[in-house]
Amino acid sequence: MVDETRAFALGQNKAFIVDVSRIARLPTTKDYFPDLLDVGVPNFGQDPAMANKAAVRIRELIGDGFQVTPVDLTSKP
User: Fold this and answer.
1) 77 in a domain, yes or no?
2) 8, 32, 39, 54: which sits with the fewest CB atoms below 10 Å from its CB?
3) Are 26 and 75 in contact (CB under 8 A)?
4) Which candidate, 32, 25, 26, places its Cα nearest to that of 54?
5) Total number of domains constituting the chain
6) What tens-digit pLDDT sequence spans the chain (77 residues)?
7) Which of 7, 61, 51 is nearest to 25 (CA)?
């Protein structure tokens, strides 16, 4: 759970929950986000602590027998 204060700091309007079964890493390029401007891209969503919590939770799910398939579209094939 991301509380309202942290959500505002991340550019969101209200508190939210991160479903780690639905996390994917996407590159911030025009291929995925065609409306991006060529000048800097504002990125309010970086939160290393949240990413670490998600990684821990994913390991817990795997330990409990869930099958997890990583999706990382930022890596070159």
Assistant:
1) no
2) 39
3) no
4) 25
5) 1
6) 788 998 888 888 999 887 776 666 667 677 777 776 665 556 666 677 877 888 888 889 889 998 887 776 666 65
7) 51
